[in-house]
Amino acid sequence: MKSLSSEMQVFLEYIEQKQLKLTPHRELILETFLKHEGHRSVEDIYRVVRESDPRIGYTTVYRTMKILLACGLARAIDLADGMTRYEHLYNHEHHDHMICMQCGKSIEFYNAEIESIQDSASEQLGFKVLDHKLQIFGLCNECRT
Ligand SMILES: [Zn+2]
Ligand SMILES: [Zn+2]
Ligand SMILES: [Zn+2]
Predict the structure, then answer these.
(1) Domains of the chain: total
(2) What angle, rounded to 10 degrees, do the helices at 42-52 and 24-35 form?
(3) pLDDT digits (tens, 9 = 90+) for 10-42
(4) What CATH number does the domain containing 1 carry?
(5) Pair 19, 84 in one domain
(6) All residues with CB under 5 Å from ion ligand 2
(7) What are 113-125's pLDDT values in tens digits?
């Protein structure tokens, strides 16, 4: 028996709990999403899965990405171009984004000081943090000049 990836186990547990089914389409979408790091829209993933199976519909990709979000495998990010993109969340180090409003480039960064300030600001207000996204919008190094 082929051993399941821990991502697949997370996925299976969730869909079982929600009484959904593991269809070959959902499985292919999950595998495609897991294969590459980076920020991808439903469109991007749709284009790639169609190469393996042209019968997969856009709605199936869209709905499956919602499942990946809900079960904690994916994280949604807003790069300010009106399109939601997804990146890996499970087993990945936390990071935030700087987004260039001219060329659309997104830069990943982590700053321990910013993280702890966010925590203490929440704590002071008695707020329990479950997740956060910090997006900084501006111009990248190349676009500023
Ligand atoms: Zn952060
Ligand atoms: Zn730029
Ligand atoms: Zn990222």
Answers:
(1) 2
(2) 120
(3) 999 999 999 999 999 999 999 999 998 899 999
(4) 1.10.10.10
(5) yes
(6) 100, 102-103, 105, 140, 143
(7) 999 999 999 999 9
